[in-house]
Amino acid sequence: VTHSIPACIGSMTINSKQLDNESPVSIFAVNKCYVTVQDGTFFDGSGFAALVREGYKVRSDVNITLEFRTTAVHGVLLGVSSAKVDAVGLEIVNGKVLFHVNNGAGRITATYEPRGTNSLCDGKWHKLQANKSKHRILLTVDGNVVQTDNPYIQSTSADTNNPIYVGGYPADVKQNCLTSKSSFHGCLRNLVLTKGQQAELFDFSRAFDLRGVFPHSCPGAEH
């Protein structure tokens, strides 16, 4: 077995002597355990998860669904870009959810603005769906649908070839459809990207790069 266990371990004794896990000699990718825990992946606001090392190709159609929980009013949710301008991006800016798409001709944005300023950043789970179908984009948050007109109807394919960055991205990586550099602080779960009939559920513990991200455990309430 070469991978770590997604679990909590406590009260370990060796030869009747209890180990002091409060002051380890060295520590790597170990988070604290929570008294109450929920399914999901915890993002501590400092990093990101990188998925699909060989690059994810959005092309003409993609449907992105995820659930998020946060008390922060800013944060990157997801970005897939190219070396050129083609890209898609999902982010929370000032308590609003923004879905950006650039098929090469220019960026278009669907914005969901909740009634109350902090109603999406209340520490409760919210469901998000972002759909790109050729030049049309649709954003649904907690069942509320936002559509936006796209003047660039001839341009239908987002020719991306970079990894999927979730919750943030490295400083040296260009993201053409994100305006925020703030890493997400909170929990994400059930990230699914669907193309046609092909749905793919992403397991964050299989990310090729994880920084400040703790798969499989979310604190039951914000600490």
Low-confidence stretches: none
Under the CATH scheme, the architecture is Sandwich
Q: How much is the average pLDDT?
A: 92
- The CATH topology annotation reads as Jelly Rolls
Rounded Rg: 19 Å
Count of structural domains: 1
User: Count the strands?
Assistant: 17
InterPro entries: ConA-like_dom_sf (IPR013320), Laminin_G (IPR001791), Neurexin-related_CASP (IPR050372)
Pfam families: Laminin_G_1
Protein name: LAMA1 protein
Organism: Smutsornis africanus
Short description:
The protein is an all-beta fold and 223 residues long. It has strands spanning 13-14, 17-18, 37-38, 41-51, 61-70, 75-81, 87-93, 96-102, 107-112, 126-133, 136-141, 144-148, 164-166, 185-195, 198-201, 209-214, 218-219.
SSE layout:
Elements: E1 13-14, E2 17-18, E3 37-38, E4 41-51, E5 61-70, E6 75-81, E7 87-93, E8 96-102, E9 107-112, E10 126-133, E11 136-141, E12 144-148, E13 164-166, E14 185-195, E15 198-201, E16 209-214, E17 218-219
Antiparallel strand pairs: 1-2, 3-17, 4-13, 4-14, 4-16, 5-10, 5-14, 6-7, 6-13, 7-8, 8-9, 10-11, 11-12, 14-15
Describe it for me?
This protein is mainly beta. The chain has one domain: Jelly Rolls, CATH 2.60.120. The chain is built from no helices and 17 strands. The strands form 3 sheets. Strands 4, 5, 6, 7, 8, 9, 10, 11, 12, 13, 14, 15 and 16 form a 13-stranded antiparallel β-sheet that branches. The protein has a two-stranded antiparallel sheet with strand order 1-2. Strands 3-17 form a two-stranded antiparallel sheet. It is elongated. The two termini are about 35 Å apart. This is LAMA1 protein.
